[in-house]
Amino acid sequence: MTAAVLALHWQVNVIDPGGFFGPMLAAPVAASGVVERATRFHAEAPVPVVFTRFTVPEGEGDLVRNTAFMTAVADAQVSFRPDADGARIIAPMREQPTVVLDNQRLSGLAGPAADWIAANGVTTVYITGVATNLTVEQTARHATDLGLTAHVVSDCVAAADETVHAASLRNLDLATAGCLAAADALASLRL
For residue 40, is pLDDT > 90? Predict the structure, then answer.
């Protein structure tokens, strides 16, 4: 097994109260303690840690305005520029990435991350990130469609609403190779 961690949207715009999605996600993320758990998991994982950032370059890159969510991001695209403060990886994780890859789609694998995964012979991904019901779920399902074995690290993901988060994890437990707590994911990575 060749594995990697996919760390999704651990960026200021998503996690920080002043970020674009801060009003929706910052308080629930902080209350959940997920940043500390995911930071520890990334640090202990004995495999590459691939961070994805949602960014919007000049000219919009691959951004498609096909949902209200993507239209809202497109309308605020200056705060998502690759060099904008909001696009930065959050401070506790800034030194952790093996590589940071940008994309303009909800799935972290709809862009250069899929190429990186293929070029490095990765067959199994362990997914962390915010939000569970958005990028995490989309990426996990996309990973399985690409033929990868995907595990969502259940205590290293969070959403704006705990009920939605729990429902998403139940769906993902069926739609992937199964959700694993960080301790169990680390144990499987060390085998």
Answer: yes
Pair 63, 76: CB distance under 8 Å = no
Q: Where are the alpha helices (DSSP H) in the chain?
A: 12-15, 22-32, 34-44, 68-75, 112-119, 137-145, 162-175, 182-189
pLDDT in tens, 114-143: 999 999 999 999 999 999 999 999 999 999
Q: What number is the average pLDDT over the span 62-90?
A: 94
Per the structure block, which two tokens stand in for 90? 């959050």
Token output for 162:
């705990």
Angle, helices 137-145 vs 162-175, to 10°: value is 10
- Is the pTM for the entire model greater than 0.85? yes
| Residue 52 to residue 137: CA distance in whole angstroms | 14
Taking the C-alpha atoms of 145, 127, 60 and 28 in order, what is their torsion angle to the nearest 10 degrees? Answer: 130
